[in-house]
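Hey team,

Filing this mostly as a record. A colleague (T.K.) asked me to run one chain through the structure pipeline before their review meeting, and I want the input and output archived in the tracker in case anyone asks later how it was produced. No errors, nothing strange. Just documentation.

Input sequence:
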Amino acid sequence: MKIIRLTKAFTFETAHALHGYDGKCKNIHGHSYKLFVTVKGIPSEDINDVKLGMVMDFGDLKKIINKEVVNIFDHAILLNQNSPHKALGDKLIAEGHHVVFTDYQPSCENMILWMVDKIKAQLQTNIELVALKLHETENSYGEWLAEDNQ
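Output structure:
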């Protein structure tokens, strides 16, 4: 087999609050997130292909992740629209802040699941999303693996 995995890392700053949580994270707080995106495929062997020898151009992967994740979450506050935080978010928007309402509790785990759907929809059929790893802190992260979700 000639299957190769590619991984690209991304960073973004995002705040969130976990409504109903029984710890400090119920308060609005921020993270310097680091996202690792891994895809796999077979490098092109078509001598007429400008991407000869590549599974995927890292620049193309960057465009997808920036559009679908980074540009949405960077310097935003994520709030669950199905919680009392909706009113706070509306007030922040009225004051000019960048608020992203989610239909889920904006935990690291749920953020990853949301990202999976967005990223998969943008990949060519010959490219498979293999893994996402989202660091909230230097030593705390969540991970999604395709092999666990088949």
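Quick notes for T.K.: The CA atoms of residues 1 and 12 lie 35 Å apart. The chain has one domain: 4-148.
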